[in-house]
Amino acid sequence: MTFAEITTRDEHRWQLRTAEVLTRLLKHGIDAELPTLMWSVASNGVLIGEASVLQPNVDRRAAFEAWAQFLGRYGRRWPEHDRMNGGTHLHLVFSYPTNRGDVKGAIRADLDPADSDQ
């Protein structure tokens, strides 16, 4: 079995498809008045949304939970787990359907330890 070489053109197409999905998600976020996330698009077309570490824990959790409620129909939430610093990691992976194949992605939030200033 041989694998076709992945070209820069392929990567650009994947990113463009993902950017189109991100536009749809942002429009949904506006309509539903969801909190904002920081979004990034990888060269392989994976979409990542992350709650800003500059926000307090309560706002990070609220942003994650709001988006998880919407995106949960396209994927699954991982169990919360403790980070080495005593904080908590929240994570949901999804596969958003398009007519040109699914866009894979995740949303996440890292919460500071309960006794921190955040």
Summarize the structure.
With 118 residues, the chain is an alpha+beta fold. The chain has two helices and six strands.
How would you describe the overall organization of this protein?
The protein is of the alpha+beta class. Helix content is 33%, strand content 26%. A hairpin with a 5-residue loop joins strand 4 and strand 5 (88-96).
Strand and helix layout:
Blueprint: H1 8-31, E1 38-41, E2 47-50, H2 57-71, E3 75-77, E4 81-82, E5 88-96, E6 103-111
Parallel strand pairs: 2-6
Antiparallel strand pairs: 1-2, 3-5, 4-5, 5-6
Estimate what percentage of residues fall within beta strands.
25-35%
Residue windows where pLDDT falls under 50 for at least 5 positions:
none
Average pLDDT, all residues:
93
Radius of gyration: 16 Å
Query: Could you give the order of the helices and strands?
Result: HEEHEEEE
| Helix count from the secondary structure assignment | 2
Helix content: 25-40%
**What separation lies between the terminal Cα atoms?**
52 Å
Q: What structural class is derived from the secondary structure elements? A: alpha+beta
